Amino acid sequence: MSLEPYSMNAYIVTVFLEDTDAGGIVYHSRYLNFMERCRTRFFYHKGIDHAQLITSQTGNFVVNHVEIDFKSPARLSEELTVTLDAVEIRGASIRCVQRIIKQEQLIVNATITLAFVNPQTGKPIRIPELLKTKMH
Asked: Which of 19, 21, 69, 85 is an active site residue?
């Protein structure tokens, strides 16, 4: 899977053979991989480094809830735009809307909630104010 930056909250993904089934259609779970890469890049461009959060024992973002709507398939060699909008930042969670677009057509729409957790216990903790500031 190739992922190139397009803007702060949108990235271009090229569909490779490994992303598809025997018919050349993107396997359903790969869309979640595309969205994960987009979120990681989004955080990186906002100055949030996941590895540093974990090693410093600050916390870690984990997927808590996913609602996904598959509207149309993507196929081998197509370029897709994956977008992210952080729509709600709460005490210990962030709700994001992510979309995958093919040639200006929405093909996947998802709402993903990330919980901020203690890296040792996995229990939710408050998102530090500095991180919340970077998210805006």
From this structure: 21
